[in-house]
Amino acid sequence: MDAKRLHILQSAINTMVRYGYRRTSMEDIAKEAGISRAAIYQHFRNKENVATEAVELVMEQGFEVAEAALAGLQSRNEKLRTYLSAYMIFYHRLVFSGPHSDEILQVKKQFGDDNPDDTRHRLVARVNDLAGLAKDDEAGFILVSSADGIKMNAPDEETVRARISTLVDRFI
């Protein structure tokens, strides 16, 4: 993806988290990006197109953050705790950092990838890989689903981290 397009998408993410999807205009995104509204239309058809690609970018960023968190870790449990925590906290921070969490979650459902199960399967396969299990092992699905529930119900990032740590240590 070219740098300009990436910059616009990151600006859209920042703006939508701050104002919510409905209140965000193309003008708001342009202002955040430091470009004209017309410049956005050189890269995207409309706000829905921006939102769709922004959701895809966020999903990729979640995987990148989780992978980067693994640097230097050795033990299986430490890797699992760290990977799941980094992935879930990335989303917790993004979704719950502002007053529009319900709307942001709705945007993910509305504009998310055509097959959200693909992202889930990718995450499950990676968790199973870190655990030394077959990529489609049920344990990964249980860990990912549980961690997702933790993310959605935790009041803060430290609680997400602590609960995922407990989950991994008791389950694996």
Write the layout of secondary structure elements.
Layout: H1 3-19, H2 26-33, H3 37-40, H4 47-68, H5 76-96, H6 101-111, H7 116-131, H8 138-153, H9 157-171
Helix pairs in contact: 1-2, 1-4, 4-5, 4-6, 5-8, 5-9, 7-8, 8-9
Which terms would index this structure?
single chain; 172 residues; mainly alpha; Tetracycline Repressor, domain 2; 9 helices; elongated
* CATH homologous group name: Tetracycline Repressor, domain 2
CATH topology term? Tetracycline Repressor, domain 2
In this structure, how is the largest beta sheet organized? none
CATH architecture: Orthogonal Bundle
Proportion of strand residues: under 5%
CATH C-level class is Mainly Alpha
Low-confidence stretches at least 5 residues in length (pLDDT < 50)? none
Q: How far do the termini sit from each other?
A: 38 Å
- The outline comes out as elongated
Number of helices: 9
**What is the string of SSEs from the N terminus onward?**
HHHHHHHHH
Notes on the protein architecture:
With 172 residues, the protein is an all-alpha fold. It has a single domain (3-171), classed as Tetracycline Repressor, domain 2. Helices cover 76% and strands 0% of the residues. The protein is built from nine helices and no strands. The chain has helices at 3-19, 26-33, 37-40, 47-68, 76-96, 101-111, 116-131, 138-153, 157-171. α1 (3-19) crosses α4 and α7 crosses α8. The radius of gyration is 17 Å and the shape is elongated. The protein starts with a helix and ends with a helix.
